[in-house]
Amino acid sequence: xxxxxxxxxTKSIAQQDENVSAVLMYGSFTKNEGDQYSDIxxxxxxxxxxxxxxxxxxxxxYSTTLYFTNEYGSEVAIFENLIRxxxxxxxxxEIDVIKSWEGFVSFSDFDQMNLIxxxxxxTETLNQIKTKLPDRTTNENILFLSQSLLNVLLTTSNLIKxxxxxxxxxxxxxxxxxxxxxxxxxxxxxxxxxxxxxSLENDIDKDWxxxxxxxxxxxxxxxxxxxxxxxxxxxxxxxxxxxxxTDLKRLLNRIE
Length: 256
Fold this sequence. Notes:
The protein is built from ten helices and six strands, in the order αββαβββαβααααααα. It has helices at 3-16, 54-59, 110-113, 121-127, 139-161, 165-186, 200-203, 206-213, 221-241, 246-254; strands at 20-26, 40-46, 64-69, 75-79, 84-91, 114-117. 27% of the residues are buried.
């Protein structure tokens, strides 16, 4: 069974289940980016959660080989066909959670996201959302990202000096995250913002990609130090490109 077939099955089960009021789909398939390796992802709004078993409900879609709640509160299914699913089962009284995402996430086409809406509550909620695509390029956001980058650069520097190389290796991944967000702003490629590595090979040109690649490392001490120095160099380039304030540039120059 393919992902599209499983989405259709989910829709059919929800349509027949009197306890289901609405189903919101999110992720790649609402952005016309889904393929054979993509997850299927849903918010399912119930009239009642009394005596409700999420695991049993999901197993009606297709047999699962693993089902658990991850550290973010998503109920994760790995199906027997090795397709991965994420599910959030909430009561219909909690549907306003969708409005809390406004300004923080990029919404897909509402028609693609609105899979089932028996009582009209989902459509009503979506219609109240005005900001579908947040502006990631504001001066306020650039300032926040620059400050955050400086913070994790200093942390990584201190860990290297302390010779906690495994910890520094992990910290360097945080550096890379903020570098990527700033690169996406500098190159006007902000449409995969929530997961800045997603489709990176296609989203940014080969020169930026090559510079970012130099910030990655294995756990070899020498390679880790080189990757960190390259991260500093790329940070300086981005601060210049994006007109980051002089006091932040001075602080950046003090980190080594």
